[in-house]
């Protein structure tokens, strides 16, 4: 961040002093506002994005402790440097214990203050970097689960070689996140990580997406286009849902892996390619081989090293931290203030089975944040507004069961857990309701 983008608010009821401080700070290029009243300063902090407040400790309308406390309540991450006379160093030290960044003694050399300001700026830049990394949808959160820890360790090891990797696991468990992690840990990290979802394209389109085409290669090919394999030059190609590639496309990929060159569609020119291949699937490739839908030779070629990522329900020790992580990540993205999680909601989230895995957990949190109007995430919002968007791997029977379960739970809550009334409203007998509660594993609040 350039100094001009670093916004400082100087608060001092002695105007002459705040003016002279602001001249010094501006001479270094910082953007500075000054304010003589603490109450006004608080208003300004609420309406403008400051990076630092430099505040006098003794002011008429509010003492430094109180102002510091109110600033930190409003904006926890906003740093405050306390300015004080020589006589009240003890108070300034106390203020640091309460969250001030540092203090500056009025009679000292102003370069001391400038030094502190540049420290705040540097730390700010570092935290922003960390935030940006953890805001990426490719960020890999560490795990407390033993199996997951082993997988991450193995991913780090395999990253050092050029081996092809096959990632197995249900939808939403983080296969793409792991593939990207392998790339980032490898020497290929200076080149690109190129993901392609084989399910998103028809056969012709997938091949053109992978290998590119020359202008006029087929109807609609109005421009020469570079394929993803070429874009992954030097880096990593990630083929998601590889089970959806047709036998023809599999042969072509196998040839590329052997010969290490491609031909764009509509051209005979050989273009040398060098990349690492990571594939992923949530289907049983072995069964597909038996049914003749997947080539055995291709399977062996892509699965030199296989990692099976566990479902979220098998790593329950991670759920609580993940919930807190996504609450922070998503609320920052949506520009919402810190949010609290109601304990009943956490209990529910810890018990839930997440058929859609981490993606589903993330979606649930996002929905809760949108619905929360008072800074608290509540269980009732989740259940009352459950949208019926299902991951595309259920049978109709399973979807029906989920919908029934959600509706019965909603009615039970509405009827304050009164079983006969609930059965009545649902148009079933009490006995049928009991059966449903058992079959669908419905949670009845006591
Ligand atoms: N370890 C993790 N830390 C933080 N976020 C994660 C982690 N694993 C997965 N996610 C998040 O969960 C979501 C699903 O992850 P990802 O797309 O990698 O799953 P997938 O297994 O590749 O899914 P699909 O099979 O449907 O392609 C993403 O939004 C991703 O950011």
Structural features, described:
The protein has helices at 15-27, 38-47, 64-74, 89-97, 110-135, 146-159, 175-185, 203-211, 228-231, 247-259, 285-290, 296-302, 319-333, 343-351, 357-371, 379-384, 396-414, 419-426, 430-439; strands spanning 7-11, 31-35, 52-56, 79-84, 102-105, 165-168, 193-197, 212-213, 225-226, 236-240, 261-262, 271-272, 276-281, 305-308, 340-341, 376-377. The protein has 446 residues and is α/β, with parallel strands linked by helices. The chain folds into 4 domains: 3-135, Response regulator (Rossmann fold), CATH 3.40.50.2300; 146-310, Rossmann fold; 312-391, Orthogonal Bundle (Helicase, Ruva Protein, domain 3); 394-446, Arc Repressor Mutant, subunit A. The strands form 5 sheets. A 5-stranded parallel β-sheet has the order 2-1-3-4-5, with helices on both faces. Strands 7-10-13-6-14 form a 5-stranded parallel β-sheet. A two-stranded antiparallel sheet has the order 8-9. Helix 17 (396-414) crosses helix 18 (419-426). The longest helix is centred in the first third of the chain and has 26 residues, at 110-135. The two termini are 54 Å apart. Bound molecules: adenosine-5'-triphosphate. Adenosine-5'-triphosphate binds next to helix 7 and helix 15. Adenosine-5'-triphosphate binds at residues 137, 139-141, 169, 171-177, 240, 280, 282, 358-359, 362.
